[in-house]
Amino acid sequence: MAADLPVPVYTSLSDVYPDLLLAAKHGARFNDLASEFESRFGSQPAYIARAPGRVNLIGEHIDYALFGVFPAAIEQDILIACGPRSSSPTTPEPSSPGTVTAQNTFPKYTPQTFTPMLRVVSQAQDQAQDEMLDKDVRVQDWHLDIDKSQLRWESYVKAGYYGVLNRFFTSSDEYPVPVNILVSGNVPAGSGLSSSAAMVVASTLAFLAVNHKLDGVKKGALVQMAVENEKRVGVNSGGMDQAASILSTPNSALYITFYPSLSAELVSLPQATKAGEGVVLVCANSLVVSDKVVVTRLSRRTDFAHFPGAKTRYNLRVVETLVAARVLSRKLNLTLPPSSTSNKPPTLREVLSAYIGRPEPIAADALKEGLERILAEIHVLKASALRGEIGIVGNEDEDEGVTMEEMISASGLGEDEFKRIYLSWVDVEATRFQLYKRTKHILTEALRVLQFRELCLASTTHSISILPTTTSTSSSSPPSSSTSSSSTSTEAFKALGALMNASHDSCSRLYECSCPELDELTQIARESGAYGSRLTGAGWGGCSVSLVPESQVDTFIAKVRSRYPKFRGLEGDALNEVIFATKPGVGAFVFELTD
Any idea where the GHMP kinase N-terminal domain is (predicted)? Predict the structure, then answer.
């Protein structure tokens, strides 16, 4: 299992990137960063921590419903050079242990110096300090000031440092070393490619390495640490971003599941049968910025941010899906486990588990069969059906939705109890709530993820089998076929692309998390030669991801540039920042510099 492997530490990039061209490309960045570090701080860094961004190939807005997703690490990454701080005329020895001097290669991010505060606490105080984080018995506690209301670049550095301090420096016998760090990266911020998670993972690795605490740390433990650390900046992640950044391997994606617990399975993508017939992923930034960026990973339903747009977008979708799960379980007369009662709203994945009636974990084939069956019954969530039960005759149009009063009535709860369970922890604004449409997207998207995984697994044995998809929301559904070992890789790529197209259409029409620019960008991508194209990330802006024949990448990018209005006139680095090709890449690691 990838999670049981140790966090890798390399002394040669050729061990990371066997391809000479790729090694040279990344080697230049590592060398430049090391040289810049020495120029600024007067000494060579001891380590460079590296964490990639990620792209979600399929499975959008279903993680907080506890359904599996299918991300992959991208080649773009965050690099943090670090070294113990030595005394010099320009950098005198700090008076407090663990002081950090943090700089960024991007001039707009100003240098920062901060020192963790040490507090000696009792065990009882420590246990009450923060219920959200894992805790050990400790005699001292560290604190770093992070203002969640106005996050700065160094907030993510502090978040990574926090977990290292309070996991590895709990004894008064040992203190963290003062550190210089220099941050660089090429993961576009706010694009849905998880630059913030990559920053926290890289920060965690850097502080582990420079304090000589990496020995014995396994990848799975690092994932949990990074998830906990990112909570410090108000992001309660389900673990997809961190797992993809840490566990990924080249040419593979991850099938990540969240129920009954977080787990990750490496799945190889289909390989070309002939040279030049492979595919790459092309990420394109719509250049539409949405305030949803601050709430894209709040999948544990706490610490929701109150920013413009969140109340009518991400937060609203979470509430709609949670209420839909309760209503659907009532309509189907399902008995949910005690954990999914009045104090913890059930998710659609938990409803499906009760519907299938098998003990967890449920195998992928059984999940797929259960999804196909339950999709035939979700018509009970249509507005007309819910109104009919309370004697109201309304429009049969499924787009109409239900009012707050109708939704409360359908839940079987009193108004006060409903608001306590579903609205006391989040602000939402809507006159109509779309229980049916949101549920249909989540369940069909969960089915597409399983089909995507099945196709990848089958293609590695040259036996491709796609089951009929009668529940697809798009004419771009994957073909129903069973092909022999003579099937070409092109057929596999076309089937994957069809699933991606159907995913985007569902996000746009049913979940309504796209925007005109993303719809235009994905359509241009399909017409420019992509097998498939869809939004990635929370939507309402951000990036698209397209599956493109490797031999046609340059032509594809040129066509998209000429047709997408926001890309016209961009050249060189400016163009490369908004549209770029990547293959599923290697996960996080530490590079140790030697004399």
Answer: 165-248
For 545, the enclosing helix (H) or strand (E) is strand 543-549
Instruction: Return the residue matching tokens 């046609």.
Output: 552
Q: Which residues of 169-178 are buried (b: 16+ CB within 10 A; e: fewer)?
A: bbeeeebbeb
Residue among 81, 73, 69 at smallest CA distance from 105:
81
Angle between helices 435-459 and 314-331 (to 10 degrees): 90
Per residue in 222-260, pLDDT (tens digit) is 999 999 988 888 776 678 999 999 999 999 999 999 999
Instruction: Give the integer Cα–Cα distance in Å for 140 and 586.
Output: 37
Please give the Cα distance from 564 to 192 (Å, whole number). 19
Beta bridge partners of 591: 10, 48
Per-residue pLDDT, 291: 52
Binned at pLDDT 50, 70 and 90, residue 508 comes out as: very high
Burial 467-489 (b: 16+ CB within 10 A, else e): bebebbbbebbbeeeebeeebbb
pLDDT at 148 over 70: yes
Query: Residue with structure tokens 């009012």?
Result: 403
Q: Whole-prediction pTM value?
A: 0.86
Residue for token digits 């069809």? 498
Neighbouring residues of 140: CB distance < 8 A, sequence distance ≥ 6: 118, 119, 120, 121, 169, 170, 171, 172
* Token output for 53: 């961004």
CA distance 493 to 495: 5
Q: Which residues contact 71 (CB under 8 A, 6 or more apart)?
A: 54, 55, 56, 57, 59, 240, 241, 243, 244, 253, 254, 256
Q: Which pLDDT does position 339 carry in this prediction?
A: 63
